[in-house]
Amino acid sequence: MTYNVQIMKHAPTLNTVIMVEKALQDAKDSVVTIAELKKLLPKQVNHNTLITILSYLEESNKIVVTIKGITWIHNYNPNLRKAIATGMEL
Questions:
Q1: Domains of the chain, residue spans
Q2: Class of domain 5-86 as given by CATH
Q3: Long-range contacts made by residues 53-57, C-beta under 8 angstroms, separation at least 24?
């Protein structure tokens, strides 16, 4: 894995990553723009750092970034995981 110089300059702390995850999980709207996300955060986050966090969350399949905005898709529900694993394919 190669690291982009931008990522190294704006490496987020774990607390900042968790803060962004929580804000996206708790968002009332299903799709949130970056500007709306910045307003939801309890602390101000550097724009480049936020972009780095969003890239990480997208790569780890926790969010989907589209033209309309960002959507949280990760689900911790063990019952859902079991249903998907044992479910029937249509």
A1: 5-86
A2: mainly alpha
A3: 53/12, 53/16, 53/17, 53/20, 54/20, 55/7, 56/17, 57/17, 57/20, 57/21, 57/24
Q: Give the dihedral of Cα atoms 59, 75, 11, 67; nearest 10 deg.
A: 60
How far is it, in rounded angstroms, from Cα 25 to Cα 62?
A: 10
What's the whole-model pTM score?
A: 0.76
- 63 within 8 A of 72, measured Cβ to Cβ: yes
Assess contact for 16 and 49: CB atoms under 8 A. yes
Using 50, 70 and 90 to split pLDDT, how confident is the model at 83? Answer: confident
